[in-house]
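Re: beginner question about structure tokens

> Can someone show what the tokenized structure looks like for a real chain? I only ever see the sequence side.

Sure, here's an example I had lying around. Input first:
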Amino acid sequence: MKQFLKTSLVVLSAAMVSATVTFAGDLSGVIKIGDSSLGHILTDNKGMTLYTFDKDSNGKSACNGGCAKAWPPLLAEASPAETDEFTKITRDDGEKQWAYKGMPLYGWVNDKQSGDVTGDKFKGVWHVVTP
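And the corresponding structure tokens:
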């Protein structure tokens, strides 16, 4: 049983390293994996937590105007290129925004430092993004 647990732990550790490599790729200057009280989460390049919004539809942001001031969209430049999981959507104002698995990504103005997750479950519609 001990050997099985050791082997399982090694396999699990290897899987976690693979996930890190998958997200690091060309997007390492934009999106990273960080640590929080909730475990591993997606962050922007400054280590700030990224969130999704339940009112968004796949590939379309519903957070504009005042909402976007409180929940700033993770804007996308021309590079780096998209991946299978990370794509760019076009917002109502014409700006490009990063999306993870089709869901637009946002920050939260009340998170003050890396690892803060104060927006998780806000009004039941905002959620921390986990890899």
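Each token stands for a local structural state, so reading them left to right follows the chain. The helical segments are 2-24, 66-70.
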